[in-house]
Amino acid sequence: VELIKKDIDFKGVNVWVLGASIVVASIGLNVNSAAVVIGAMLISPLMGPIVGLGLSIGINDFKMLVRSLKSLGTAVLVSILISAIYFMLTPFGEVQSELIARTEPHLLDVLVALFSGGALIVAKSQKGTVSSAIFGVAIATALMPPLCTAGYGLAVGDFSFFWGALYLFTINTTFIALSTFIVLKVLRFPMLKYADSKRRKGIAQAVTFFAVIAMIPAILAFLTLIKK
Known about the structure:
The protein is built from eleven helices and no strands. By secondary structure, it is mainly alpha-helical. Helix 2 (13-30) crosses helix 9, helix 4 (47-58) crosses helix 10 (159-186) and helix 9 packs antiparallel against helix 10 (159-186).
């Protein structure tokens, strides 16, 4: 719990790391380099507040929930704005396959986020965290590239890119947090002493509702993909 709490806020070193990952991801998408994009995924500290969301709901820590939402919201806004500025300034304006790959999420992306998030929280719950699991989840769920793709969509005025990429990021965020919540329940992490059962039930219902709503377009996209 303490390790996850430490990674929630963007301050000090995390601010610089976030900025670097935004620029690296934007360049990788711009020049169509999978290696550079993967590097940005590994550098990005976005996983901290997302796992914090799942943890805060799982142990009923409302203050941590607010902290996680603030950090994540700030990071998303900054990532989109900085990447949009980059794509406005770059002389290489062609649409690349690395950009296109982040604009059409479907049901399989939901499954990747769900199982990756589960692997991450199980690894973090052990003494001597399994670092390979953390790196693998960072690559599998690709949090920074979709935000930079949304920045590209904003920069060129292509809102199909903007909303598609933002939806992929939303799927990844929602289902990593959801799987964190589920694993914590299975592992029976202790609730905070002031836990209010009514509030706890309300938050759990809200999370479930949001997850179902987030999944509907992904299922429709998946069915379209099967028909193709």
